[in-house]
Amino acid sequence: MKVAVIGSGGREHTLAWSLVRSPEVSHCYCLPGNGGTAGLPKTVNVAIAVDQLGEICEFCQTEKIDLVVVGPELPLTLGLTDQLQALGIKVFGPTKAGAELEASKSWTKQLLVEAGVPTAFGETFTNPEPAQAYATKMGAPIVVKADGLAAGKGVIVAQTLAEATTAIAELFDQGFAKIVVEEFLPGEEVSVLALCDGKTVIPLLPAQDHKRIGEGDQGLNTGGMGAYCPAPIAPPAVIDQVQKQILQPTANALAKRGIDYRGVLYAGLMVSSTGEIKVLEYNCRFGDPETQAVLPLLATPLEKVLMACVDQTLGQLEPLQWHAGSAVCVVVAAGGYPGSYRKGDEIGGLAEAKAQDVTVFHAGTELKEGKVLTNGGRVLGVTALGEDLSTAIATVYRGVEQITFDGMYYRRDIGHKAL
């Protein structure tokens, strides 16, 4: 089986790493891939950017690719799945219509309300003045969201009205045509990534992401500084509730709109102190860095599961098998991230880290003249497994401590909230 993984981040390295472990997968092409995917067995990087849809389609046709797995949201929102399907190529990832789930917060909010899925109440605005008036009426803390793709950084939790006013002005200044202002939901966040074939929805193990740059969840929002799985805030009984009250009704609502959704339904949820669960947001693809913590625990071959989604046979699949224990991923970032940062610094200690029984997933890296160099804000995702969360945390930090590059930064408290 020949597969193509679209993307260049830590999520894509993890997807490729998971796929090539199966004897059923003979070739894996990463478009464009990174310094880590360049070193995977059975894997070749192909220098085609994720937004070059015509080139991607031509390559997949020429190479007779059996399954395309789309990592990031951008090519999905541009309609890559639609173009590949028109050529008769199997692809895991929703169509452009389905990707609205992530591309438009207001569209998703309307869908959830229509479906009766519990979510924060709020309103959509096309001008700053009424948005500010609404925020003033609601009071702080309050949440301001960009209605469009923002690389995981389009949500501002404003603790004061002054912060809300600034956030509203900045998002409109950045060119967003619409924003959503909604109530602040207290509680604890959990990410539930579910597989959907258009009819059946199967949730994966719950994970918890650490969005803020600073320890103790302080500072600016990032794309994610680490994750652990499974998250104890969402035991099996809670996941069963999420499946019945949130995931399946969402899939049904998409189908009612004529959307054949085959891909990941990634629900960002808030669990209140009383156990009430509400949707914060939906994404239309695997999470990053949640994927780096979830997939290493999956014992069922990944290509088997993804192909069942594409073929709409998820309901006939045997229950997913999981390795026992916990997984923790710590993101190693470039100094200055999520602001401006430097590229091109050589990364050392990768072999030494691997010797500590961790897996190093590359995100913002490139391989140049035999050296692995930094090439992004989130540079690496170091993952460890353990019989319990404490063991996984201890192992992962032993691995992280072996890695060196100028200005490297990582949080030292990933997973501690669960302890």
Describe the protein in words:
By secondary structure, the protein is an alpha+beta fold. It has 4 domains: 2-95, Rossmann fold (3-Layer(aba) Sandwich), CATH 3.40.50.20; 121-183, 2-Layer Sandwich (Dna Ligase, domain 1); 188-316, D-amino Acid Aminotransferase, Chain A, domain 1 (2-Layer Sandwich), CATH 3.30.470.20; 326-418, Phosphoribosylglycinamide synthetase, C-terminal domain (Glycinamide Ribonucleotide Synthetase, Chain A, domain 4, Alpha-Beta Complex). It contains 13 helices and 22 strands. The protein has helices at 10-20, 53-62, 73-78, 80-86, 100-103, 105-115, 128-138, 161-173, 236-256, 290-294, 302-310, 350-354, 389-400; strands spanning 2-7, 27-32, 43-45, 67-70, 91-92, 122-125, 142-146, 155-158, 179-183, 188-196, 201-203, 208-209, 212-214, 218-221, 226-229, 263-271, 277-283, 326-333, 359-362, 365-368, 371-374, 378-386. The protein has a 5-stranded parallel beta sheet with strand order 3-2-1-4-5. A hairpin with a 5-residue loop joins strand 16 and strand 17. Helix 7 packs antiparallel against helix 8 (161-173). The radius of gyration is 20 Å and the shape is globular. The termini are far apart. The model has no long low-confidence stretch (mean pLDDT 96). Residues 109-311 form the ATP-grasp domain. GO terms for molecular function: phosphoribosylamine-glycine ligase activity.
